[in-house]
Design a protein that fits this description.
By secondary structure, this protein is an alpha/beta fold. The protein has 12 helices and 17 strands. The protein folds into 2 domains: about 50-295, Aspartate Aminotransferase, domain 2 (3-Layer(aba) Sandwich), CATH 3.40.640; about 300-365, Alpha-Beta Complex (Aspartate Aminotransferase, domain 1), CATH 3.90.1150.10. Helix content is about 40%, strand content about 20%. The strands form 4 sheets. The chain has a 7-stranded mixed beta sheet with strand order 4-12-11-10-7-5-6, sandwiched between helices. Helix 10 runs parallel beside helix 12. The structure holds pyridoxal-5'-phosphate.
Length: about 400
């Protein structure tokens, strides 16, 4: 590998480079295979080299990749229709290219609503401690983790942090326009919010004509077993953001909302957002995933994967504390003496890809269509690491 570095040193990269993949297996430069339980941090929803996705990309490349949002884009319209239908909410979509951009759009929309919907401007958005909403200046400020804010101020005003959902309710005041939450905090420890508390928050916001924004960048697109995690919570948010798994590796983001008359022409936009390539791939991905869910295969995969996680927690109580998360967005809470970075590195050495989250959570975000065989192979390798650690820690 060429060690000359032309890249800014922003990432704490593991010392490996993948050159190809097939289904849920990745291959490095030497041809060694790795079972992928991370799917590029929740992006590769259909794993690698899905035949229908390849066909769509080739077909679209032979026609048109991009025109501009100053023209109509047929696959974008189809994609919006599909997303709205799958969500079961009465919403409209705005397409962009990433989770941060989707959240930025959500914040802009909430701000405009706060400007025009009341006698007095409301602008404050309450977010939850340990949340993660993106890395632009505004979404970074929406991310309620003070240690990430150190060098980049001054920030836009108007973000208030609550320790939990109940505190968010108590912090709502006359300046508040919205509360923005992740139903499972992805980067903040795979922490799942309490359903009753979220429903209560939703009720109070609705009663006061304030907004519930749900960041489903990580939880959305069938990761929970439903198209959206919000559907499990039986809530109707005003704004939902999606990205990651929508086009299994082609950059795309969506902000969807039931506020249909707030943004006017020119208020917002994106050059690349929702172009022919990303939305035609997303249409294919969503069709495959919808069928996958309807056939019962997704639920069966979720059960199978969860069984393994439960097994490890039960069998190795000296290493593992508990399971966290839902569907195929799962975490294992490690006992204090287990080093998270070490276990991620060891997993790589044993050719299985896992992620960290928070300070002591081992995170699993496998491709949604991972096969039972791949799951079995992955956890067989994982058990070798666990045995090794278990002997050492006893
Ligand atoms: C919940 C959540 N929101 C927003 C983002 C930011 O997405 P992106 O990196 O695509 O900008 C992430 C990324 O991990 C996320 O998990």
């Amino acid at each position: 590998m060429d060690k000359t570095n032309y890249l800014l040193p922003l990432y704490n990269r593991l010392d490996i480079s993948f050159v190809k993949g097939k289904k849920s297996i990745l291959y490095d430069e030497k041809g060694k295979d790795y079972v992928d339980f991370s799917s590029g941090i929740g992006v590769n929803s259909l794993g690698y080299c899905n035949k229908k996705v390849i066909k769509t990309i080739k077909k679209q490349a032979n026609k048109i990749l991009h025109s501009s949002n100053i023209y109509h884009i047929k696959p974008q319209k189809e994609c919006a229709k599909k997303i709205v239908a799958l969500s079961t909410y009465d919403m409209q979509c705005f397409f962009c290219n990433s989770g941060a951009e989707a959240n930025e759009s959500a914040i802009k929309l909430a701000r405009k609503y706060g400007n025009i919907a009341f006698n007095k401007t409301k602008y404050k958005i309450i977010t939850i401690r340990n949340s993660f909403h993106g890395r632009t200046i505004t979404t970074l400020k929406a991310t309620a983790q003070d240690d990430k804010h150190k060098y980049f101020g001054p920030y836009p005003d108007g973000f208030v942090y609550a320790d939990n959902i109940n505190e968010a309710i108590s912090l709502i005041d006359e300046d508040t326009v919205a509360v923005m939450i992740e139903l499972i905090q992805g980067e903040g420890g795979v922490f799942m919010q309490d359903k009753a508390q979220v429903r209560e928050l939703s009720k109070i916001l609705k009663k006061n004509k304030l907004l519930l924004i749900v960041d489903e960048v990580q939880t959305g697109v069938y990761r929970s077993g439903n198209f959206l995690m919000s559907q499990h919570y039986e809530i109707t948010p005003n704004i939902i953001t999606l990205a990651k798994g929508l086009a299994t590796g082609i950059p795309i983001g969506v902000m969807m909302t039931n506020l249909k008359n707030i943004f006017a022409k020119g208020d917002h936009g994106s050059t690349f957002g929702g172009n022919h390539l990303s939305t035609s791939v997303s249409n294919t991905v969503l069709n495959i995933l919808e069928q996958y869910k309807n056939s019962g295969k997704l639920e069966s995969n979720i059960k199978y994967f969860n069984k393994y996680i439960d097994y490890f927690i039960k069998k190795y109580p000296s290493l593992f504390l508990s399971k966290t998360g839902f569907g195929l967005m799962l975490g294992i809470t490690l006992k204090e003496k287990v080093n998270l970075d070490e276990i991620v590195q060891l997993s790589l050495n044993y050719r299985i890809l896992v992620l960290n989250s928070g300070t002591n959570i081992l995170r699993f975000l496998p491709p949604l269509n991972i096969s039972k065989k791949e799951i079995k192979i992955g956890f067989k390798r994982f058990e070798k690491i666990v045995r090794k650690l278990n002997i050492r820690k006893q």
